[in-house]
Amino acid sequence: MSAATTSAQSLREQERAARRAEKERQRRVARDEAAERRRAEKAGFANVNNPRRSTWMTVVCAIFAVYCLFPFVYLMINATKTQADFTSTFGLGFGRTFALFDNIATVFTYQDGIFGRWLVNTLLYVVVGAGGATLLAIMGGYALAKFRFPGRKAVFAVIIGSISVPGIALAVPQFLLFAKLGLTNTPWAMIIPSLISPFGLYLMWIFSEQAVPTELLEAARVDGASEFRTFWTISLPLLAPGIVTTALFTIVATWNNYFLPLIMLKDADWYPLTIGLNQWKDQASTAGGQAIQNLVITGSLITIIPLVIAFLCLQKYWQSGLAAGAVKE
To answer: Where is the ABC transmembrane type-1 domain (predicted)?
Structure first.
């Protein structure tokens, strides 16, 4: 037998051995994956590198999604009805007349356009109050996270204690204080309390600890950057996800605030949307009052649109910081 024939047979044997080894490796990988799936099922967890489908989880998520979207769908359907259709047709069915645009026009012209004034008031309270609360939370949380000073632990205890106190419990003391100062029935009665956000301060404190490396700040100081410049040019971009999260919390809290303006404001010209729409809702129960549920529903739909837009526009910044601090270095 020639050397060439022997070499060819050797190569074929090596190829067959390589194929057998590859098949054995694939079977071993399949067995390992199956065993991992069984372990995950017993433990109640799933490996992200070896995902598995869960019918029950899909059903639960679908039910939760329907539960969350149901009020929004109800608003959208009933905002298209006239007052007569609202009281005479099924709640989740459309009326005989599509009156969405007529309802929107009527909302902004009813009672000399008071709804527009309520919308401007709400935007004022949100921009000044929630915006100021976010700014104070950013600066306070950053200072508490990156600077060491006497009384820092006491400040932490005060913040935690403030978070544990519900805001509604402070409404009456705030009213008495503002009444002494003569600030009730003014925009300041809404703006000043909104500037304080203990949860936002705590959130920015924790986020600043993880998002801003101390070594980066030290490098900036060595290069001669002032604390102000270091904060605005280096730290602030790193804090973007935490800032957006804090802003969304404060915006929603201020936009949906009901009890505080209820006891602070008497003049309808300073009402936010929550109090104004509730006044329209109760109008039908007063003597000689006119039922305008279609306008209340349409006004409620208009009220939530800015919040939906804010969440959709800012969600990419919010999602980018959800895993901050999840990995220990």
So the answer is: 119-313
Of 135, 130, 318, whose CA–CA distance to 242 is shortest? 318
User: 47 pairs with which residues across the strands?
Assistant: 50
CB 299 within 8 A of CB 115: yes
Helix ranges restricted to H, the chain: 3-43, 55-78, 83-88, 100-109, 114-124, 131-146, 152-164, 171-181, 188-194, 198-211, 214-222, 227-229, 236-238, 240-255, 259-264, 273-282, 293-320
Q: In a structure prediction context, what are the per-residue pLDDT tens digits for the chain, which is 329 residues long?
A: 556 667 767 777 888 888 888 888 888 888 888 887 777 666 655 555 555 567 888 899 999 999 988 988 999 999 888 888 888 888 788 888 888 899 899 999 988 889 999 999 999 999 999 999 999 999 999 988 888 888 888 888 888 888 888 878 888 888 999 999 998 999 999 999 999 888 899 999 888 888 888 888 888 888 888 888 888 888 888 888 888 889 988 999 999 989 889 999 998 889 999 999 998 888 877 756 677 888 899 999 999 998 888 888 877 776 555 455 444 44
Question: Quick check: 103 and 319 in contact, CB under 8 A?
Answer: no
pTM score:
0.75
CA distance 248 to 134: 9
In angstroms, rounded to a whole number, what is the distance separating the alpha carbons of residues 191 and 117?
17
Cβ–Cβ under 8 Å, residues 86 and 78: yes
What residues does 50 pair with on adjacent strands?
47
CA quadruple 28, 29, 34, 38: dihedral positive or negative?
positive
Closest CA to 86 of 286, 296, 232, 270: 296
